[in-house]
């Protein structure tokens, strides 16, 4: 988690806008809640509102595929950023 926070801080300093999800703690474990749905909505909504030309997706959730395809359909570029400990084998091939 510390490395992810350091990456986010560095990206923000370099002018990137970071959209964070939500974590809930239960039984001493953290679980994402609604993150994939909110991210999909933001990808599509912001694409249609022309809020970006290129989005860097730091997520390995292949459930985002329909949102990525829609953003690409209207001319947006989505760059998948994967980490070697959790690579999505579906997302890099979306064109």
Strand content: 15-25%
Number of strands: 4
Gyration radius from CA atoms, angstroms? 14 Å
User: What strand line-up does the widest sheet have?
Assistant: 1-2
- The number of helical elements comes to 3
- Helix/sheet category: alpha+beta
Percent helix range? 25-40%
Order of helices and strands: HEEHEHE
Q: How many domains would you count in the coordinates?
A: 1
Mean pLDDT: 85
The backbone outline, from C-alpha atoms, is: globular
Largest sheet: 2 strands, antiparallel
Describe the protein's architecture and organization.
The radius of gyration is 14 Å and the shape is globular. The chain has three helices and four strands, in the order H-E-E-H-E-H-E. It is of the alpha+beta class and 95 residues long. It has one domain (23-93). Helix 2 (35-48) runs parallel beside helix 3. Strand 1 and strand 2 (29-32) form a beta hairpin. It has helices spanning 2-13, 35-48, 65-73, and strands at residues 23-26, 29-32, 54-57, 77-80. The strands form two sheets. Strands 1-2 form a two-stranded antiparallel sheet. InterPro entries: NYN. This is NYN domain-containing protein.
């Amino acid at each position: 988690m510390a490395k992810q926070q350091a990456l986010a801080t560095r990206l923000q300093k370099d002018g990137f806008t970071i959209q964070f999800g939500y974590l809930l703690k239960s039984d001493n474990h953290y679980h994402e809640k609604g993150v994939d749905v909110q991210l999909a909505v933001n990808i599509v909504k912001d694409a249609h509102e022309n809020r970006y030309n290129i989005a860097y997706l730091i997520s390995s959730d292949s459930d985002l595929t329909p949102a990525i395809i829609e953003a690409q359909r209207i001319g947006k570029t989505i760059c998948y950023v994967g980490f070697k400990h959790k690579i999505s084998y579906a997302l890099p091939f979306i064109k």
